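Escalation from tier 1.

The customer reports that the assembly of two entities below gives different structure tokens on two consecutive runs. Tier 1 could not reproduce it. I'm attaching the input and our single run for tier 2 to review.
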Amino acid sequence: EAGVVQSPRYKIIEKKQPVAFWCNPISGHNTLYWYRQNLGQGPELLIRYENEEAVDDSQLPKDRFSAERLKGVDSTLKIQPAELGDSAVYLCASSPVFRPGNTGELFFGEGSRLTVL
Amino acid sequence: SQQGEEDPQALSIQEGENATMNCSYKTSINNLQWYRQNSGRGLVHLILIRSNEREKHSGRLRVTLDTSKKSSSLLITASRAADTASYFCAADSNYQLIWGAGTKLIIKP
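Tier 1 run:
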């Protein structure tokens, strides 16, 4: 079974440039997460999707970040314009079913490492 | 946001020794999960313990949960070089996973 696939693995851009990350979750997983992970820290949730609906985007900096999950399958996270502080690893994760009160096991991709110069 | 805490931040032990990592959280939880992250890679789920469980085993892993103290521990027995990684706890609370900052474990040969 294929795991969560993310691309690109690495991206180096100059500040004020746009950048986009793509994620393909495990087939059949309804719930999709985007996390940001700074060096030496745990993941921080940016957005959670249930199928195509963004059910938790409270931590997404909406002035410059946007995300979409068309048709409830793969997802794109965009930053425009990027700032120096956006340098981090962007992780995508999926899980099969989101049961109220229980998150369950998350399956993570390898991440996209962004460096903003 | 991160509201979990883990200690120690870093742990270096000899191969074959046991490694213990601790996690504390602040809210009531449904379950608590432990993940491993190798350098430059994604996180891998290790074990999940439900709020009504006190101890759980999986291979060389032993997890305990004390909901009265809002804490959990992960024990890795007979450590191997391949166990070198960062370990994160994640508390499942109110539709959110609350992550700790992780413990960096180094196994010396």
